[in-house]
Design brief:
Elements lengths: L8 E5 L5 E9 L1 E3 L2 E3 L6 E3 L5 E14 L4 E13 L4 E3 L2 E2 L1 E3 L12 E6 L2 E8 L13 H14 L4 H11 L5 H8 L3 E4 L36 H14 L5 E4 L11 H13 L5 E6 L4 H10 L3 E6 L4 H8 L6 H13 L3 E8 L7 H13 L4 E6 L4 H7 L11 H11 L4 E3 L13
Parallel strand pairs: 13-14, 14-15, 15-16, 16-17, 17-18, 18-19
Antiparallel strand pairs: 1-2, 1-7, 1-11, 2-6, 3-4, 3-9, 5-12, 6-7, 6-10, 7-11, 8-12, 11-12
Helix pairs in contact: 1-2, 2-3, 4-5, 5-6, 6-8, 9-11
C-alpha cells in the first residue's frame, strides 16, 4: 500500500524508448475528460510482471507545482499495462499530435516515479495467484507444451491451445493448461454476433484499429476433442479445476452452443467434475438454458455498461439487443448457474454516477453473484470519442464506485478471475 505522502513525479519517454523521470513536474492522471493529481489511496508500486509502454505521438503532461499549471512536454507519455488481478483507476495524461497513430488493444494506466520506483494508478482486486508465472522457467512450460503436442497429435483443439495460444501468444490460461493447473481455455467458435469496437481477435474491414493481439481460430473443434481436453485437465488439476469456453482467440461461444452442450454432456457422463464456465456476450437466452441443462456451472457476461445505449455503441450487436442479455442472465439464474459480470472498466466512465447506479440496479434485479473488475483494452481517446454524447454524471473514482456497489449490493462478490465454485468467494 502506498504511503499517503507519496507524490510521484512525471515519467516520460524519448523516441528511442528510454524511460526516465522529470523531477521538476508532478505526475498527472486522467479520468474521462478530467485531469488531476492521483489520489494517494489509488497509487501503488508497479506490480511485478507489469509492462511499461511509450505512447507514440502523445506528448506527456505534467504539473508544475510552483505555478499550478499543466505543462506539455516534448517527451512522449508513458503508460503501464498492469499485471493480471489489478484494475487500472486512471489513464496517463497527454496531448495527442494530429498524426498520432491508434494505440493497440491494451489497457493504459497512469504511471509516475517516486522513491526509486514506478507507481501506477491501480488496485489489486484478486489474490488468486493463477496468472503469476514468476519462478516458473519458460523452458519448463515449453517442455510440457511439446509433450502435450506429442501426446495428442490428432486433437486439433489441444494442438491449437498449446502451439498457438501458449507458445505463440503466451496466453496465461493456455500456459496454465500446459502446466496442469487452475483454469483450462476451451475456444470453440469461429464467428461472432457482435462487432465489438475493441475485439482482440478480429476487426472488420476499414476499422481504425489496424492490428489485433490475436487471430481468430480457423477451425471448429468436435465435441469429442473438447471433452478430451477437459478430461486431460481434470486429471492434472484435481483440487479446483475450471474449464472455460469463450476465449480471446475465438468469436462468441454461444453461436456453437449445441456443440458445447454435447461436449459438456460427454465430460459429465464420464465422471467429469469441476467448474464448467462460459465467457459470453449472453446474446442467446435459449442457448443459455440448454447449456445449463447440459451441466454448465457458471456464466460470465461481458459488459462495458449496464445501460443499453453505451452497451450498443461498444458491442454493436447483430441480431440481438440488451434485453436479450438481461433475459440470458435471468435464464442462467433460473437454471442454477453462478453468474458473473466481466465488467470492462474504463476510468472516468464506468465509475460515474449514472453508470454505477445502472450497474447496481442490474446486479440487484437479477441477483448477480460476482463482478470481475477487468480493464477495457482500448485506446482511451477512441473510447471517449465513442461515448462523447452519453450522459454519465460526475465521476466517483474507483474507491467510491466500489464502496457504492458494496453498499447497494451487499451480496455480490468482487475479483478478477473466473472463480472456482469449489472455493468460497470473496465479498471484498
Amino acid at each position: 500500500m502506498a504511503s499517503p505522502t507519496i507524490r510521484p513525479v512525471l515519467a516520460v519517454a524519448s523516441k528511442d524508448g528510454s524511460i526516465y523521470d522529470r523531477p521538476d513536474l508532478l505526475m498527472v492522471c486522467r479520468k474521462g475528460k478530467d485531469f488531476a493529481l492521483p489520489r494517494p489511496d489509488e497509487l501503488m508500486p508497479l506490480p511485478e510482471e507489469s509492462e511499461l509502454f511509450l505512447l507514440p505521438g502523445r506528448r506527456a503532461l505534467g504539473l508544475n507545482s510552483e505555478t499550478g499549471e499543466l505543462e506539455l512536454q516534448e517527451e512522449l507519455a508513458v503508460a503501464a499495462f498492469a499485471a493480471p488481478a489489478h484494475t487500472l483507476t486512471a489513464h496517463p495524461a497527454y496531448e495527442s499530435d494530429p498524426e498520432a497513430p491508434m494505440l493497440p488493444l491494451f489497457a493504459y494506466g497512469a504511471v509516475g516515479f517516486a522513491n526509486d520506483r514506478f507507481y501506477i494508478c491501480a488496485k489489486k482486486v484478486d489474490e488468486d495467484p493463477r496468472q503469476i508465472f514468476k519462478g516458473i522457467p519458460p523452458a519448463r512450460i515449453r517442455k510440457k507444451a511439446e509433450a502435450l503436442l506429442r501426446q495428442y497429435p490428432d486433437n486439433r483443439l489441444i494442438q491449437h491451445v498449446v502451439a498457438k495460444c501458449a507458445l505463440t501468444y503466451n496466453c496465461p490460461a493456455a500456459r496454465n493448461f500446459c502446466l496442469g493447473r487452475f483454469e483450462a481455455p476451451l475456444p470453440v467458435s469461429r464467428v461472432c454476433n457482435a462487432r465489438c469496437i475493441g475485439c482482440i481477435s478480429q476487426q472488420e474491414k476499414g476499422s481504425r484499429i489496424c492490428t489485433t493481439p490475436q487471430n481468430r481460430m480457423n477451425f471448429t473443434p468436435e465435441a469429442e476433442e473438447i471433452a478430451e481436453l477437459m478430461a486431460h485437465h481434470a486429471r492434472n488439476e484435481t483440487k479446483a479445476p475450471i474449464f472455460s469456453f469463450g476465449q480471446g482467440c475465438e468469436g462468441e461461444p454461444l453461436t456453437e452452443y449445441k456443440r458445447i452442450a454435447e461436449a459438456i454432456r460427454l465430460f459429465r457422463s464420464r465422471g467429469g467434475e469441476g467448474t464448467v464456465n462460459i465467457n459470453s456476450n449472453a446474446s442467446l437466452p435459449d442457448a443459455v438454458s440448454e447449456l445449463a441443462d447440459a451441466g454448465l456451472s457458471s456464466l460470465r457476461v461481458s459488459l462495458n455498461s449496464a445501460r443499453e445505449e453505451p452497451y450498443t455503441r461498444y458491442y454493436r450487436p447483430l441480431g440481438y439487443n440488451f434485453t436479450d442479455v438481461e433475459e440470458s442472465i435471468r435464464r442462467a439464474k433460473a437454471g442454477g448457474l453462478f453468474v458473473s459480470l466481466n465488467l470492462l472498466y474504463f476510468p472516468g466512465f464506468t465509475d460515474t454516477d449514472l453508470e454505477s447506479a445502472a450497474l447496481a440496479a442490474l446486479v440487484n434485479e437479477y441477483a448477480i453473484d460476482f463482478i470481475q473488475l477487468r480493464n477495457l483494452n482500448i485506446d482511451p481517446e477512441l473510447y471517449l470519442e465513442l461515448m462523447q454524447e452519453v450522459e454519465t454524471g460526475p465521476c466517483l473514482g474507483f474507491a467510491n464506485f466500489r464502496k457504492r456497489l458494496k453498499r447497494e449490493c451487499p451480496h455480490v462478490g468482487f475479483g478478477y478471475f473466473n472463480p472456482s465454485l469449489a472455493v468460497p468467494q470473496s465479498q471484498e
